[in-house]
Amino acid sequence: MTIADIRKATDTKMDQSLAAFQNNLTKIRTGRANPALLDSIHVDYYGSQVPLSQVANVALLDARTISIQPWEKGMGAKIEKAIRESDLGLNPASMGDLIRVPMPPMSEERRKEMTKLVRNEGEAAKIATRNLRRDANEAVKKLVKDKAASEDDQKRAEAEIQKVTDRHIADIDKLVAAKEAEIMAV
């Protein structure tokens, strides 16, 4: 493995870490309705647990309401039960075949709790990025130790890896700030 391979692999892993962080942020509730909020809910479908999106059409009715249209008649009650039992604090209402999930307005205290949760997620993503930097630097040091690269190459590689790390951490900070602003908007 060369220094270029290490740098490319590290950049790819950091991008994956950033994508995972973005995915985690979509699951954090804001005052606004978001169909991705229900991605973690699984419904009992003929004895097996399947994601909600595989048994119903999930869409937005308006800024504060998610609509769920089950594909089969008998699934409505099971979907409502799964949403009520989730830890999201949502209360679905059935209207014939359509299930409406109104998003209750969040209190100021709840908004602050959510921003703390976002900051914790951001810190975990930064730690993952820094761990990837450490692993890459150790791989470069091993190349130098095995005489496959010079110490000058090591210094250059560590500087480039640091630039990649700084860029990803800045992206994480931007995402955290944007999500906090979204949560605190009334």
From TrEMBL:
<dbReference type="InterPro" id="IPR002661">
    <property type="entry name" value="Ribosome_recyc_fac"/>
</dbReference>
<comment type="function">
    <text>Responsible for the release of ribosomes from messenger RNA at the termination of protein biosynthesis. May increase the efficiency of translation by recycling ribosomes from one round of translation to another.</text>
</comment>
<dbReference type="InterPro" id="IPR036191">
    <property type="entry name" value="RRF_sf"/>
</dbReference>
<keyword id="KW-0963">Cytoplasm</keyword>
<feature type="domain" description="Ribosome recycling factor">
    <location>
        <begin position="21"/>
        <end position="184"/>
    </location>
</feature>
<comment type="similarity">
    <text>Belongs to the RRF family.</text>
</comment>
<keyword id="KW-0648">Protein biosynthesis</keyword>
<protein>
    <recommendedName>
        <fullName>Ribosome-recycling factor</fullName>
    </recommendedName>
</protein>
<dbReference type="InterPro" id="IPR023584">
    <property type="entry name" value="Ribosome_recyc_fac_dom"/>
</dbReference>
<dbReference type="Pfam" id="PF01765">
    <property type="entry name" value="RRF"/>
</dbReference>
<keyword id="KW-0175">Coiled coil</keyword>
<feature type="coiled-coil region">
    <location>
        <begin position="133"/>
        <end position="167"/>
    </location>
</feature>
